[in-house]
Design a protein that fits this description.
By secondary structure, the chain is of the alpha/beta class. Helices cover about 45% and strands about 15% of the residues. It has 13 helices and nine strands. Helix 2 links the parallel strand 1 and strand 2. Bound molecules: phosphoric acid mono(formamide)ester and norvaline.
Length: about 300
């Protein structure tokens, strides 16, 4: 990352393996001493724009910005209606006069890209229909805390081929981890992400299957997410039927490595994508995963605003 030019975090394809390493090591430092950089954002504000609901992302960004002595300004999308009340170019130019970064959760990744093009301050993707890079950076941090070394692990993602797994594919390529994805035939992730991942790292194995047992085989990390993402609520009943064989439960876990861990980005729908029994057994790790959003996002802010 250049010292002078501002960079955005819109896709995990925006960063190198080396930048990821630096963010993970910063996150480790910040987790050890959460208030060690309490002046980093002194007298600075960060805009947080949300077009979809959020607990973890919003609160961890707000709390993290407070730890840095900064001021988070959370804006609900309907207050500014990007692209409707005002075009993206004007919003980007105006916000750049007030704040040191723009964090945005919205539907279309294209809208975040456009904001990133016009903004003079870093733009950070807090989830789009296509990707969730902050989540995955944080998850890689959690996996590293538990396994110490990321390379040579196998991650199995079981469920919908959504934003979370599309970022996971890129994250695994950056971290040198194999990834196996089991989704129903019409719900596989977009092949575009597999092509990009292969370009990032041609050595890892990326497997796409509709068989959850095959994906889970010998995996070190089993990961799932909701079957119905925000914005797809009308498809809930249809999806619940289609995805039923993709639940993470004891039977599926018996195919994974004996020391495998289970991750879930949350919110979770127990007895759907994950059985209550499995969730309860891994709840400590899943809550550790949620906690780490705070530390990882603080590291992201330092990297992108401070050009550390
Ligand atoms: N995992 C995650 O992004 O949670 P929120 O939607 O609550 O922010
Ligand atoms: N795939 C989910 C992730 C929530 C954090 C969604 O987009 O709703």
């Amino acid at each position: 990352m250049s010292k002078t030019k501002k960079s955005n975090l819109i896709s995990l394809a925006d960063i190198s393996a080396n930048t990821l390493k630096q963010i993970l090591s910063l996150a480790k430092e910040l987790k050890k001493e959460p208030l060690s950089k309490s002046f980093f954002l002194k007298n600075k504000s960060i805009a947080l724009i949300f077009a979809k609901p959020s607990l973890r992302t919003r609160v961890s960004f707000e709390a993290g910005i407070n730890h840095f002595g900064g001021n988070p300004i959370t804006i609900k999308m309907d207050e500014i209606s990007v692209g409707i009340r005002e075009n993206v170019e004007d919003i980007a130019n105006v916000l750049s006069k007030y704040v040191s970064a723009i964090v945005i959760r919205t539907f279309e990744q294209k809208q975040i890209e456009e904001l990133g093009r016009f903004s003079h301050v870093p733009v950070i993707n807090a989830l789009s229909n296509e990707e969730h890079p902050c989540q995955i950076i944080s998850d890689l941090f959690t996996i590293k805390e538990i396994f110490k070394d990321l390379s040579d692990l196998k991650l199995a993602y079981i469920g919908d081929g959504n934003n979370v797994v599309q970022s996971l594919i890129l994250g695994c390529a950056l971290a040198n981890m194999d990834i196996s994805i089991a989704s129903p035939k019409n719900y596989l992730p977009n092949k575009y992400y597999i092509e990009i991942a292969k370009r990032i790292n041609s050595k890892i194995r990326i497997e796409l299957t509709s068989n959850p047992k095959q994906a889970a085989k010998n995996a070190n990390v089993i990961y799932t997410d909701v079957w119905t993402s925000m914005g797809q609520e009308k498809e809930f009943t249809k999806r619940a039927k289609i995805f039923k064989p993709y639940q993470i439960n004891d039977e599926l876990l018996s195919y994974a490595d004996k020391k495998a861990i289970v991750l879930h980005c949350l919110p979770a729908h127990k007895e759907q994508e994950i059985s209550s029994k499995v969730f309860d057994r891994f709840s400590e790790i899943i809550y550790q995963q949620a906690e780490n959003r705070l530390h990882a996002q603080k590291a992201i802010l330092m990297k992108f605003i401070g050009n550390r």
